[in-house]
Amino acid sequence: MHPRLTDTALLSALRGFLPAESILDDVEDMQPFECDGLSVYRQLPMLVVLPETVEQVQQVMRLCHEHKVPVVARGAGTGLSGGALPLASGVLLSLAKFKRILSIDPHNAQATVQPGVRNLAISEAAAPYGLYYAPDPSSQIACTIGGNVAENSGGVHCLKYGLTVHNVLMVKIVTMDGELLEIGAPTLDAPGYDLLALMCGSEGMLGVIVEVTVKLLAKPERAQVVLAAFNDVAQAGAVVGAIISAGIIPAGLEMMDRLAIQAAEDFAHAGYPRDAEAILLCELDGSNAEVSEYIMAVRKLLTDSGATEVRTAVDEAERQLFWKGRKSAFPAVGRISPDYYCMDGTIPRRQLPHVLQQISDWSKEYGLAVANVFHAGDGNLHPLILFDANQPGQLKLTEEFGQRILRLCVEVGGTITGEHGVGIEKIDQMCVQFQTLELQQFHAIKHAFDPDALLNPGKAVPSLHRCAEFGAMHVHDGQLAHPELERF
Amino acid sequence: MSDLSLDLQQQVLASIHDGEPLYIRGSGSKVFLANHSAATRTLAVSTHRGIIEYDPRELVITARSGTPLTELESALADAGQMLAFEPPHFGAGATLGGTIACGLSGPRRPHSGAARDFVLGCKLLNGRGEILRFGGQVMKNVAGYDVSRLMTGAHGTLGVLLELSLKVLPRPAASVTLSHECSAAEAIAYMSSLLGLPYPVDGVCYDGEHCHVRVSGSAQAVHDARNKIPGEVLPNPERYWEKLREHTLPFFHHHGTLYRVMVKPATPHLPIKGSWLLDWGGAQRWLYSEEDLATIRHQVALAGGHVSVFRGPATARFQPLPTAALNLHRRIKAGFDPHNLFNRGALYAQL
């Protein structure tokens, strides 16, 4: 017996065109789909479907459209904002079976793949041609390209190479009413509106991505990384601006503070200086000659800015090790604390010392430690708030702390999410970032694609009523947010 | 240096009230690009101008839409920076807003990115007369739909751009252009091969006789690349690339209709009679041809590409959209401009 009723009419209709193994409605079978990377939110869907062909996706969508059943699309489920959280009354549409690389075209430097292809698998398939796919989110061994498009994923190299939106040429989507649309083109631009920009980061709200064509780049001749240690976090932050002012765009420019350094070092043995207050990892890539020239320049800038230690990776193995420490920072912090809450705000770089100081002050106020990991080059902060969910009240306190950090990011001219997305996690913070009229404009865009609001409802863009209720709890300077709305 | 946002808002509200469609106009330098717009009033935005914020360390500049491109570029040059998409001006008064609304990019586009890639945020006035802000001044921002990039290339049909924040980049320390003589087929093969090589190439063009390759970066990188790329050093390269960007090279002195043909870069030479110039490493091809538009569209479609009528007479300049896509465009347009006020018909007759 199922604990909840499934819509039997829907189920039998699905069985009409999907093989039995492509439909899961047993609680045990559906358990792996109940959350994504943000596992504090869990919900079993009404049922899970795993179509294998575009036609099947279209049929599922037509059927759900007809029965007004909401649909949540899911890739690898590595997202960090709950964007793929199922709905109890909805169908979870998994793209896990869309795993084929359809073509690698070295002559035009592009690849066409199905949405369930892993990010790293594209670069692996392109490697024999000296090409690769640039965006490299930390989860790249597991996350899939469909999800990358839906979230507009970044990575440590996006300062130089951009986000997903800069590296995708075309997607095919199935709309809620089952129509197959090509968005973008295999050429460098497409006729009409730039709907590809809308699709990137749309969090599964506008259409289901069933095919992706990405741009490939020539693998740089050489990549080299410099590690610099500092006694003062603000000093490290200032160097970032100095490097960029010198006309150098590093491929990656990452920063970690003391707690993150120690956790990463204990975990990955990357050779980080444990006593430093901050380290910077600066990667330069390009031609051999160019990298040599920039390494000299960066080393001088770092030394002149008061770095206590400046080390260039001696070989590729050490370069990989330096990065391993950084890329494993999250799991490393996970080892030193029962739980952690990962934030994802972005700020103008010049605000870094101010924001860090404020986070540090709040950390003391709340009695919750914070490990800071940043994509320093593009101002994207990942403060990890350490807490213990088993201690009564700590989760609530942590969330409150987190909300204050995001509010601060908005106040200094930044944003509540740089790369993890809004999903369900930051839905209330959207009310801080945007005014009523802007949210209404977002809803108008959603309406153009999905007038019945059946695709991933309740995510990414809050309803005005939700904002009114959230705003009522946060009266700012005595002003009530969204005064035009009725209160409940 | 004045902020006319509220004045422009009043004009839009008046147009809604009076039911009079508007044509948004900056300097008028790119009027030739769009279809004729059936507007009864003009919304002049060129006096809404001025740089609002620019801190070179942040790699971001924010300015009002009427700001002349020349003013913007000179402020950036003073700090050793640039608009890396190398926008064409097509006129002395070209404005930032018009540049983004038309979404044009210059020779550096395949290597550094298009206009839309550098748009980080905007303030706009929609067809309800509402002033809205999207995106921001930071490079990574995934809060909400990417409306700022949607505005790029929309030819003003979705709203009036009021302010724009753009990512900027350092100017390369050094640059050299190497030119070698070759056939079109050889040029296409060579340009395609460059896509797989890690050279700091930031401009590739075949003018019908010579293949020109621009390499820019650190002094060492440029020196290094000279030994790897065939050809003679082109004198006065800045002038060459500027003339290519502005369509003032002798090739563009042709009379007749100029078509912009977009194909995958390695696409073989197309069997359409006319004069060709291949920019963007073969991905953007300029064609003067006497053939009729339908024939040209058909040939280009067979190669998987699309065509617009860039200069010369035409009633529908842009590549027609499939019905489902056009319907989606109409719904999006209605979502921004429900009274169909802005630049009616400029992009497609149905918008």
Give structural notes:
The complex is a heterodimer of chains A (488) and B (351). By secondary structure, chain A is of the alpha+beta class. In chain A, strand 5 and strand 6 form a beta hairpin. Chain B is an alpha+beta fold. Chain B has 2 domains: 168 residues, 2-Layer Sandwich (Uridine Diphospho-n-acetylenolpyruvylglucosamine Reductase, domain 3), CATH 3.30.465.10; 138 residues. Chain B is built from 11 helices and 17 strands. The two termini of chain B are 33 Å apart. The model of chain B has no long low-confidence stretch (mean pLDDT 96). Classes of the chains: A alpha+beta (488), B alpha+beta (351). Chains A and B meet through helix 7, helix 8, helix 10 and helix 16 of A and strand 7, helix 6, strand 9, helix 8 and helix 11 of B.
Main sheet overview of chain B: 5 strands, antiparallel
What general outline of chain B do the C-alpha atoms trace?
globular
Give, in order, the helices and strands of chain B: HEEEEHEHHHEEHEEEHEEHEHEEEHEH
Query: Helical proportion of chain B?
Result: 25-40%
Q: And the CATH topology of the largest domain in chain B?
A: Uridine Diphospho-n-acetylenolpyruvylglucosamine Reductase, domain 3
Helix content range of chain A? 25-40%
The proportion of strand residues of chain A reads 15-25%
Which second-level CATH architecture of the largest domain in chain B applies?
2-Layer Sandwich
- The low-confidence parts of chain B are none
Question: Can you tell me the overall shape of chain A?
Answer: globular
Assembly classification: heterodimer
Number of domains of chain B: 2
Residue stretches of chain A low in confidence (pLDDT < 50, at least 5 long) are: 1-5, 474-481
> Gyration radius of chain A, to the nearest Å?
23 Å
Number of helices of chain A: 17
The greatest inter-chain interface is formed by:
A-B, 92 and 86 residues
Mean pLDDT of chain A: 92
Find the count of extended strands of chain A (DSSP E, 2+ residues): 18
